[in-house]
Amino acid sequence: MADSKKRVPMNHVIGFILSLVMTLVAAWAAIQSDLPVTWVIIGIMILALLQAGVQLFMFMHVTEASSGNGHVPWNMMFHGFALAGILVAGSLFVMSFGHDHGDHGDMGENQQHEEQQSEDHSGH
Amino acid sequence: MAAEELKTGPLEYRTQEGQMGIMGFWIFLGAEVVLFATLFATYAVLFGRTADAPLPSELFEPGIVLVMTFLLLTSSFTCGLAIHEMRRGSVKGLMLWMIITLALGLGFLGFEIFEFVHYTHEGATIQSSAFWSAFFILAGTHGLHVTLGIGWAILLLIQIKQRGLTNVTSRKFFIISLYWHFLDVIWIFIFTSVYLIGMVI
């Protein structure tokens, strides 16, 4: 591998800088920016996925000609990631979507009642 | 052709055993992805169920979490450099960067223990609510992995001091580098979906 002859592995340095920048952007978006919460969450989750990609492809030698690409069981890794997505999205879908429970649910209902009342008043 | 490659490629790929060991470790990482996915799913479902305990937005502080993130991110980078040195045939470089990696990992652990103790003093323990149970289990399982990784790497450092770079020792170091990078991947998701989202909402 030509890469291993170099003193400084440039792809590692680039990956490191990319990770630092993405971490700082995510932190800025969450802490400092005035963006809507939904957009912040979508944005920082995308940044997290990109950073995971940097680790996999630039640090973890996922693609490597010198092993004949025979060292990574792609089907099983895909299986793992698909299961992870199903577990998290499925749990949220089953347990949290459509019905708020606990304090939040009550607050939501109260607000709805108040809104309805104020609409009634304005109607009169 | 195969015989020629066996004499030139990175040491860890030269034997069938080495290649299979690395592939087996990737399968293990696939299983670890699923393990952490169950913990993330539990955390996401229990988010907001803090009962009478403090809210995450009251306790999470950007400063310490960012320091922990940069420590682990840098340790992942230095771990990559260690493998790079290993492939250049330098035992010294490998050991130096690996020790730096471990020092950064220990720094991360120190901050995490400090953070957990701080939360406990503020009234958020593993027993205080469903949310904090899920939080401590998720972050704690990651911290436990870091602890195990540090112990594992110390043992490997002792072994490489005694045996030098061989097909076997370089395969072992390559595998722990995969493990260490993987811990950083998990931490990125904890940093984003636990701490950042916890501070936003």
Concise account of the structure shown:
The complex is a heterodimer of chains A (124) and B (201). Chain A has 124 residues and is mainly α. Chain A has helices at 10-31, 37-59, 74-95, 102-123.
General description of the model:
The complex is a heterodimer of chains A (124) and B (201). Helix content of chain A is 72%, strand content 0%. Chain A is mainly α and 124 residues long. Chain A has two domains: 1-72; 74-124, no CATH class. Chain B is mostly helical. In chain B, helix 2 runs antiparallel to helix 6 and helix 4 packs antiparallel against helix 5 (91-121). Chain B is elongated and about 65 Å long. The N and C termini of chain B lie far apart (58 Å). The model of chain B is unreliable at 1-5 (pLDDT under 50). Chains A and B meet through helix 1, helix 2 and helix 3 of A and helix 2, helix 4 and helix 7 of B.
List the main descriptive attributes of the protein structure presented here.
A: mainly alpha, 4 helices, disordered C terminus, B: 201 residues, mainly alpha, Four Helix Bundle (Hemerythrin (Met), subunit A), 7 helices, 0% strand, elongated
Helix and strand topology:
The complex is a heterodimer of chains A (about 120) and B (about 200).
Chain A: H1 10-31, H2 37-59, H3 74-95, H4 102-123
Helix pairs in contact in A: 1-2
Chain B: H1 2-8, H2 16-45, H3 56-59, H4 62-87, H5 91-121, H6 130-163, H7 167-200
Helix pairs in contact in B: 2-6, 2-7, 4-5, 4-7, 5-6, 6-7
Oligomer: heterodimer
State the low-pLDDT regions of chain A, or none: 103-124
Rg of chain A over CA atoms, rounded to whole Å, is 23 Å
User: Order of SSEs of chain A, N→C?
Assistant: HHHH
CATH topology of one domain in chain B: Four Helix Bundle (Hemerythrin (Met), subunit A)
Count of DSSP H/I helices of chain A: 4
Helical residue percent of chain A? over 70%
Percent helix of chain B, as a range, is: over 70%
Report the radius of gyration of chain B as a whole number of Å: 19 Å
